[in-house]
Predict the 3D structure of the following.
Amino acid sequence: MNNYFEIKLKSVSENEKFARNIVAAFSVSLKPTIDEITDIKTAVSEAVTNCIVHAYDNDPSREILIRCELDENTITTIISDDGVGIPDIELALTAFYTTKEEDERSGMGFTLMQSFCDDLQVSINENGGTTVTMIKKILRDEVISA
């Protein structure tokens, strides 16, 4: 690991924008393309929104932990909550699955995260809650031209 940061954010919708922007800004040293930055921002937005809406049911007194690690050409973003957890991860990873049908949620959060990351891991925390680990490899010019 070359560099990292860790931050706790209050579980409020305004922090979703802050989270995606701070992770995107942190990735700049890897020289990502605009498309790669957009991928990172979208995946982070979905993960943070899942914490706010599903894990914490919009409870602003709760916290979301974000840790980002840079290593050569890879950014790993780990987003954790200590909310209700996911009873069936395999089902939750299914496109269009949502626990908030009454809120007209699309159920595409994990599907979007998977499509914008090179690897997505979802795990249940020992003390409750969920951790989402998203890995994005940044293609560099020297890799593309080789």
Q: What stands out?
A: The longest strand covers residues 63-71.
